[in-house]
Write a structure and sequence with these properties.
Structural class: alpha/beta
Number of domains: 2
Distance between the termini: 65 Å
Number of strands: 21
Strand order of the largest sheet: 15-16-17-14-13-18-19
Shape: globular
CATH superfamily of the largest domain: Aldehyde Dehydrogenase, Chain A, domain 1
CATH class of the largest domain: Alpha Beta
Mean pLDDT: 96
Number of helices: 16
Helix content: 25-40%
CATH architecture of the largest domain: 3-Layer(aba) Sandwich
CATH topology of the largest domain: Aldehyde Dehydrogenase, Chain A, domain 1
Length: 493
C-alpha cells in the first residue's frame, strides 16, 4: 500500500509516534492505502508551522494578485491530475468515478479559481465624514485556520474551506476525515508544487475525539475553525471554540424537504428529485430525503419516480456505467441498513430498493409512512427517501418546516407567484426552485437550526476568514479644530 503522510511546514512526514492507519476501499472492503495517524503532538507541530508562516512569513503580506497566481496554478495542477485525484476519492469512499471525475475535481479547481479572483476583485467600504475625517474598511487575514472536512465530498469540500482561507492570506491546517485521507495529501503535494510557501497549507491526518481533531480544535493558537459534518460533532467543536473565543463556522446535517406541486413539470421534477436523493448514494447533507407530493399528481409522480430509482445502476464505482456505489464504511452501512430493516416497523412500505451486496443499499423508496416517523425525521445519509402526499400549499409548508434541520429545501412548480411565496417562508439556508445543487459561489451557503452556524461563500467567506478593521483618518485638521470641543470623540449613537 502507498503511504500518505501529514504535510507540515512544506514536507510530507510520518507521525511523531510512527502510528499509521489504513483506508479501506468500500467496494472491495479491503485496505488500499496507509496514512499517518496523528495525535496531539502532531497537531501542535502543524499549528506551530502555520503560526510561524502567518506571523513571520510572506504569504499574509503578499498582494492578492500574487497569491492568486499560486492558487490558479494549484487549480491547473488539480485539473492535470484529475484522474488520480478522482480515483483516490472513489477508492476512499466509494463514490462513482463519473461523479468524482465529472463533478468533484472540476468544482475543486473552480473553488480555488473563484476565491483567488474574488479576493483580488473585492472592494471595501469607505465612509466620507463631514468632520474633517475619512473612514474606510480593511479586511486583514484572521490568522491560523483549522479546517475539518467530511468524507462524502473529500477534496471538493476541503477546497471550499481551504481556498477562501488561503486567498485572504491565512495559513491553514486541514484535517480530512479519517475515512478519506488520500486526496488531502495529494492536494497539499500539488500546492507545494504550485509554489505555496512552507507552513501555509498543512495537512494533519487522524481521528476526532481524543486524537488529532480534538487537539486541533482546542489549540489556543488557532484563530478560526471551519467544520462540515454531523450536527452532534458540530456542537462539540463549538464548545471547543468557545473556550478560547475562537470564531467557528459550522455546516452541519440536513433533512431537506422536496415539495412537488400539482402544477410542476413532472418529468423535470422526477429527474431532479432522483438526483437530489440518490447522488453519491444519498451521502449528501443536501439530499432531498423528505419528498412531499401534492395528492393530485401523487400516484403518477410516484410511479415515474420509483421506476427511475429502480433503473439506477448499482455496482463497482470504478465502472463508468455505475450510478450507485457502496456506502463509505462498514459502520455507515450498518447505520443505513438499520433504517431499511425497520421500514415496516415504522409503518412504511418498501416501494423499491432495499439491501444490496456488500456495503451497498439499492435506491430505496418508502411510502405509507407518517411524517413523524424516524425515517422521515432523522438524517439517514443514504439512498433512502420517504414519499408523503399533501393537500394544500399551507400543509406542504408546515410539513417542510417541521424539522430541527434547516440546510436546504426544494420546490417544483410552474407558478411563479407560488415559487417566490413558498421560497420566502421555507426555513432553510438554500431553496432550489425547479432544480437541485446549482451553486453560485458568491451566494451564502449554510443552514439554520441543527444545520449549522454562519455562512460561507463570496463576501460571507471574506467576513469569516478576515478581521474587518475600521481605519479613521483625519484629512482636514482645520475642520477638526473648528468643531465644538464637547462634540469631539462622541459616539454617533
Amino acid at each position: 500500500m502507498d503511504f500518505y503522510g501529514h504535510v507540515i511546514d512544506g514536507e510530507e512526514a510520518a507521525s511523531l509516534s510512527g502510528a499509521t492507519f489504513s483506508s479501506t476501499d468500500p467496494h472491495t472492503r479491503r485496505p488500499w492505502a496507509e496514512a499517518a495517524l496523528g495525535d496531539g503532538a502532531d497537531a501542535d507541530r502543524a499549528v506551530s508551522a502555520a503560526r510561524r508562516a502567518f506571523d513571520h512569513g510572506h504569504w499574509p503580506r503578499m498582494g492578492t494578485a500574487e497569491r492568486g497566481r499560486i492558487l490558479h496554478r494549484l487549480a491547473d495542477l488539480i485539473e492535470e491530475h484529475a484522474e488520480d485525484i478522482a480515483l483516490a476519492d472513489t477508492q476512499d469512499m466509494g463514490k462513482p468515478i463519473t461523479q468524482s471525475q465529472g463533478n468533484d475535481v472540476p468544482r475543486t479547481a473552480a473553488n480555488f479559481r473563484f476565491f483567488a479572483d474574488h479576493a483580488r476583485l473585492s472592494t471595501s467600504e469607505s465612509y466620507p465624514m463631514d468632520t474633517g475625517h475619512h473612514a474606510y474598511t480593511r479586511f486583514d487575514p484572521a490568522g491560523v485556520v483549522a479546517a475539518i472536512a467530511p468524507w462524502n465530498f473529500p477534496m471538493m469540500l476541503e477546497s471550499w474551506k481551504v481556498a477562501p482561507a488561503l486567498a485572504w492570506g491565512n495559513t491553514v491546517v486541514l484535517k480530512p476525515a479519517e475515512d478519506t485521507p488520500v486526496s488531502a495529501t495529494l492536494m497539499a503535494r500539488l500546492a507545494l508544487e504550485a509554489g505555496m510557501p512552507p507552513g501555509v497549507f498543512n495537512v494533519l491526518h487522524g481521528y476526532g475525539p481524543d486524537s488529532a481533531g480534538q487537539a486541533l480544535t482546542e489549540h489556543p493558537a488557532v484563530d478560526r475553525i471551519t467544520f462540515t459534518g454531523e450536527s452532534g460533532t458540530g456542537r462539540v467543536i463549538a464548545t471547543a471554540g468557545a473556550r478560547h473565543l475562537t470564531p467557528v463556522s459550522l455546516e452541519l446535517g440536513g433533512k431537506g424537504a422536496n415539495i412537488v406541486f400539482a402544477d410542476a413539470d413532472l418529468a423535470g421534477a422526477v429527474e431532479w428529485s432522483i438526483r437530489a436523493v440518490f447522488t453519491n448514494s444519498g451521502q449528501v447533507c443536501l439530499a432531498g430525503s423528505r419528498l412531499y407530493v401534492q395528492r393530485e399528481v401523487y400516484d403518477e409522480f410516484l410511479t415515474r419516480f420509483a421506476a427511475a430509482a429502480d433503473a439506477l445502476v448499482v455496482g463497482d464505482p470504478r465502472d463508468p456505467a455505475v450510478q450507485i456505489g457502496p456506502l463509505a464504511s462498514a459502520e455507515h452501512h450498518a447505520k443505513v441498513a438499520g433504517y431499511v430493516d425497520t421500514i415496516a416497523e415504522q409503518g412504511g412500505t418498501l416501494r423499491t430498493g432495499g439491501l444490496g451486496d456488500g456495503w451497498t443499499i439499492r435506491p430505496t423508496v418508502i411510502t405509507g409512512m407518517d411524517h413523524t416517523a424516524r425515517h422521515a425525521r432523522e438524517e439517514i445519509f443514504g439512498p433512502v427517501v420517504v414519499v408523503i402526499p399533501f393537500a394544500t400549499e399551507a400543509e406542504a409548508i408546515e410539513l417542510a418546516n417541521d424539522t430541527p434541520y434547516g440546510l436546504n429545501a426544494m420546490l417544483f412548480t410552474e407558478n411563479l407567484h407560488r415559487a417566490h411565496r413558498v421560497a420566502a417562508v421555507l426555513r432553510a439556508g438554500t431553496v432550489w426552485v425547479n432544480c437541485f445543487f446549482v451553486r453560485d459561489l458568491r451566494a451564502p451557503f449554510g443552514g439554520v437550526g441543527d444545520s449549522g452556524i454562519g455562512r460561507e461563500g463570496g463576501t460571507f467567506s471574506r467576513e469569516f476568514f478576515t478581521e474587518p478593521k475600521a481605519v479613521v483618518m483625519q484629512i482636514d485638521p482645520a475642520a477638526d479644530r473648528d468643531r465644538p470641543r464637547s462634540s469631539r470623540g462622541r459616539s454617533a449613537r
